[in-house]
From TrEMBL:
SUPFAM superfamilies: Six-hairpin glycosidases (SSF48208). This is Glycoside hydrolase family 15 protein. Gene3D superfamilies: 1.50.10.10. The keyword Hydrolase applies. The keyword Hydrolase applies. Transmembrane segments: none annotated. The lineage of its organism: Bacteria, Bacillati, Bacillota, Bacilli, Bacillales. It holds the Pfam family Glyco_hydro_15.
């Protein structure tokens, strides 16, 4: 099944240029098909930086020869205003897999095509709107771009200005220029009595009206809706005027800038067209997850918007490096590590708010230090710049020393929640000596040793290698039963994350591979829809015994190591078959049949890149 973006209201297709981030949505709260800019963020990609009112921005249209309105929300209440079918979403795509998002939809004979993009190096967002007829007959049409603002504090000609906070201003207009009116949307578009301008500090709908001619078989000329943000009113107005100057060339210029960026991507070889699109979209999503300062964050998923998970950010960082975007990866690495704060026990907190930069985690995990060592090593090994090691040596040595000091009598890392934060006493379960935590720590120590030797820290290198060996011995003693690697010392249940230690983090011996893979397929594969669960017994408020994209990719990679290419691609294809039409993959599938976490740049979209690189042999070269 393919999912449209937004069928779960937490999901959005993101558009960003690093300065601003927009959310695009294809389903309303009551699951009507719509084409909506759900939200726009500036200056931080955080929920507190939202510029639009909750209704966002959308398009209404009226073909003057027809009785049916293109009206996704059923706003127009004319006598014959809503005769006919509902709006249908025809296609959604990132054009050429890059940063311009296109939606084609129709109602009756009216077809509406929107393209949305953030022009490079500007605090701006542009949406172009074009209309044609399904039957290719000429007509005239009225296009109504609608935007729900949090407030309107000033109007300058046909530019409307909203102030959200002391350093958040938004300027909105359309091109060709049109008088904007505020008030009741239905009255505004049907010629009812409204006000031309209303000074308001309350949420306010703003409606523009632009007549357009539709020739035979062609779309109308584009109507451009422009949003520009700034830390001051003057900055927002300058961003708006600068954007308007090159408005007709902006889409092509944006695509060209993305093409330049994509050319820096590693040459993975020839892929089938479908996989080539997933490859490009996933690389695009990685770039879009980077804020102006380089910090990679979660961008498409509402509850976690504005959070920096060290694990997820390092996954994005390392994937950028593996895909050849070294400059972005180095900047993102430094930005991510700049958030680090020590817990009372000396480890680092694993989750932070992007605005306050304060920890906001809700579980206890000890894998952060091992992941930090891996992330630094992966970027350094590909950037080939020893300055990275000198700069980050305090973090490298602190992380490695924490691992060595925080093993108990078992030889394993102290009990924690492992890789999955929804595990532990807050859900009625005790922390365990998780295999993931000890294994990623062991892998991190081997990389710390390599980095230490490079900058002549030989004494540390020896200690790190010894610690890694001891952790592996402890895993073999306590966490492996009849060749099956279990979740922890305390449980023989399975954890899908252990697949990675046969593939991307190859530290487990091959003799564990056969039985472990068989057990995962038998006990973690969803019996109805396929795909791999993340834990054998783990539930959340929505029901978690459903396949996850990341673990499904990971098992497929382990199957490639095993030499079973056919089985591996069965799991790879399971993920692709559950993607949205525009090429974004869900984090998981809920038990209610909804996809959660579409547009996740870490496990989901990074999983596309990493698995394709792994299947083509690139991972072996770097590791």
């Amino acid at each position: 099944m393919h999912y449209f973006i937004g069928k779960n209201q937490d999901n959005h297709a993101p558009i960003s240029n690093g300065n601003v981030l927009a959310w695009l949505q294809q389903y309303s709260a009551d699951c009507r098909p719509v084409d909506k800019i759900s939200q726009l963020f500036f200056p931080n990609f955080d929920l507190s930086s939202a510029l639009l009112d909750t209704h966002g921005s959308y398009v209404l249209a009226k073909d003057q020869n027809e009785k049916v309105w293109y009206d996704p929300y059923g706003i127009v209440q004319e006598k014959f205003g809503q005769v006919g079918e509902i709006v249908s979403i025809n296609t959604t795509q990132y054009i050429n897999g890059s940063g311009v998002y296109e939606v084609v939809s129709h109602k009756g004979n009216t077809v509406v095509k929107t393209k949305t993009w953030a022009p490079p190096h500007r605090n701006a967002l542009i949406r172009s709107i074009q209309v044609k007829t399904l039957r290719n007959n000429p007509t005239t049409v009225s296009i109504f771009p609608v935007v729900h603002l949090q407030n309107i504090v000033q109007r300058i000609d046909n530019i409307f200005i909203s102030r959200i906070s002391e350093n958040q201003w938004l300027a909105v207009t359309v091109s060709p220029s049109s008088i904007g009116i505020t008030g009741d949307v239905a009255k505004a578009v049907t010629g009812g009595q409204i006000s031309i301008f209303e000074h308001s500090l309350l949420p306010t709908p703003l409606i523009f009206s632009i007549p357009q001619t539709i020739p035979n078989e062609h779309y109308s000329k584009p109507v451009y809706q422009v949003f520009a943000a700034g830390a001051t009113k003057d900055e927002a107005l300058k961003a708006l005027h600068d954007t308007l100057v090159t408005i007709e060339q902006s889409e092509q210029h944006t695509l060209q800038e993305w093409e330049i960026w994509h050319r820096r991507t590693i040459n993975i070889g020839t892929l089938p067209p479908e996989l080539e699109y997933y490859w490009r979209v996933s690389n695009t999503l990685l770039k879009m997850s980077l804020q102006k300062d380089g910090t990679p964050i979660l961008i498409g998923f509402k509850p976690y918007q504005g959070n920096v998970w060290i694990r997820d950010s390092l996954w994005i960082v390392s994937t950028l490096a593996l895909a050849g975007h070294i400059k972005d990866a180095v900047k993102a690495l430094y930005a991510t590590l700049s958030y680090l704060m020590e817990r009372p026990d000396g480890n680092y907190y694993f989750a932070y708010n992007v605005v306050t930069r304060l920890p906001n985690e809700h579980a206890f995990e000890n894998d952060t230090t091992g992941l930090i060592l891996y992330g630094i090593w992966q970027v350094w090994s590909l950037a080939k710049n020893n300055a990275i090691l000198h700069d980050l040596w305090p973090i490298i040595s602190h992380s490695a020393d924490w691992i060595l000091r925080n093993r108990d009598f078992t030889g394993l890392i102290l009990p924690d929640a492992g890789i999955w934060e929804t595990f532990g006493p807050h859900l009625g379960e005790s922390f365990e000596h998780m295999t993931w935590t000890s294994a990623i720590s062991a892998f991190g120590l081997t990389k710390a040793a390599e980095m230490a030797e490079t900058i002549q820290k030989t004494e540390g290198a020896q200690r790190f290698r010894e610690g890694s060996h001891e952790l592996l011995q402890a895993i073999a003693k306590h966490n492996v039963d009849n060749g099956i690697v279990s979740r922890s010392m305390e449980s023989t249940l399975l954890d899908a994350s252990i697949s990675l230690f046969f593939s991307e983090f190859p530290i487990f011996p091959q003799e564990w591979l056969e039985q472990t893979v068989k057990a995962i397929q038998k006990r973690l594969e969803d019996p109805f829809i396929g795909g791999i669960w993340r834990h054998e017994s783990l539930t959340t408020e929505e029901g978690d015994l459903k396949p996850w994209t990341g673990p499904t990719f990971w098992l497929a990679e382990a199957l490639l190591v095993k030499g079973d290419v056919t089985q591996a691609w069965k799991y790879f294809n399971h993920n692709y078959q559950n993607s949205a039409f525009c090429g974004l993959l869900p984090e998981l599938l809920y038990s209610r049949g909804r996809a959660r976490g579409i547009g996740m740049p870490s496990y989901s979209q990074s999983g596309v890149i990493r698995s394709l690189l792994f299947s083509q042999g690139f991972f072996h070269r770097s590791i």
